[in-house]
Write a structure and sequence with these properties.
The protein has 293 residues and is α/β, with parallel strands linked by helices. It folds into 2 domains: 187 residues, Rossmann fold; 83 residues, UDP-galactose 4-epimerase, domain 1 (Alpha-Beta Complex), CATH 3.90.25. The chain is built from 11 helices and 12 strands. Strands 3-2-1-4-5-6-10 form a 7-stranded parallel sheet, sandwiched between helices. Strand 5, helix 5 and strand 6 form a beta-alpha-beta unit. The protein is globular, with a radius of gyration of 18 Å.
């Protein structure tokens, strides 16, 4: 397939582009900046210049492709208002991509997070929460999955709170960045809450498999580690950075405080069985050993 990819130069996106190219697909990559365009070209992708707010460019990319994988999202999480602006921008972008594919039976693979479910690991059958700081993303994903009734082979890959590669990325990456700034490898609550995780290279395989074979309206969990205790994550970060690991106020983490404090393990049993996916790269705690002091 010729695949239009948004967010193709990020941690996950660059792995997805490499995975697609390595399995015989070609890639048209959206690139907002000169640096992103150079990175996409160097990776072997064709470049389409524009950003998520350029809706006509998104429609053009979808029209030129046999399928779409959407990964781009704004990275300003400094305030609730900035986070909501990023959610709104993505919602408009997804709507444009979806409408461009109506009636084509082409695949549209979008992305979301795994949902928290009290008392047990979440599964692919559990609904996404539509409230909270990123509830708008869940509503957008639901809209895309609803296009299955309008001739779009729409699917959603749910990523865990930490997608990592060589110790960088995801919520664990945010913990690391905050630790470097504050001098403490902190975590909210008692640290027993669990975060699921996956290596970026393993997650990329799920996106490819969903593009190639997933039925319309389906959801998948790209989860390798069902749930690592946050205190254990912070302990490795602290040891690697030479900092104390200890509980801190949830407010330390801004709009992510309530999410960081939640227990949110997730299962990928259905995804592994149905798509034949099996993660092969290091788990989060092992991968964090790559952190440089």
């Amino acid at each position: 397939m010729h695949v239009f990819v948004t967010g193709g130069t990020g941690l996950v996106g660059s792995a997805v582009v490499a995975e697609l190219l390595g399995h015989g697909h070609t890639v048209l990559a959206l690139a907002r900046s000169d640096a992103s365009a150079r990175a996409a070209h160097h990776a072997g992708a064709e470049v389409l210049r524009g950003g998520l707010s350029d809706l006509d460019v998104l429609r053009e990319g979808a029209a030129r492709a046999d399928g779409v994988i959407h990964l781009a999202f704004g990275h300003d999480f400094t305030t609730p208002a900035a986070l909501q602006a990023a959610v709104g921008e993505e919602s408009d972008a997804l709507a444009a991509l979806g409408e461009a594919l109506v009636g084509t039976d082409r695949p549209l693979v979008t992305v979301s997070g795994t949902p928290p479910v009290p008392g047990r690991p979440s599964t692919e059958a559990d609904p996404l929460p539509t409230d909270g700081p990123v509830g708008g993303r869940s509503r957008s994903v639901a809209g895309i999955l609803g296009l299955a009734d309008r001739g779009v082979r729409s699917t959603a890959v749910r990523l865990p709170r930490t997608v990592h590669n060589r110790g960088e990325g995801g919520f664990a990456g945010l913990l690391t960045a905050i630790a470097r700034q504050s001098g403490v490898a902190g975590y909210p609550g008692d640290g027993t809450q669990r975060w699921p995780a996956v290596h970026a290279l393993d997650a990329a395989v799920v996106f490819r498999l969903a593009l190639e074979q997933a039925p319309p309206g389906s959801c998948w969990h790209a989860v390798a580690d069902e749930g690592d205790p946050v205190a254990a994550i912070a302990a490795v970060i602290g040891r690697r950075l030479g900092l104390p690991a200890e509980a801190v106020a949830a407010e330390t983490f801004g709009p992510f405080g309530p999410i960081f404090a939640a227990d949110q393990p997730a299962s990928s049993a259905h995804t592994r069985a149905a798509l034949g996916w099996e993660p092969t790269h290091p788990g989060l705690l092992a991968d964090l050993e790559h952190l440089e002091p």
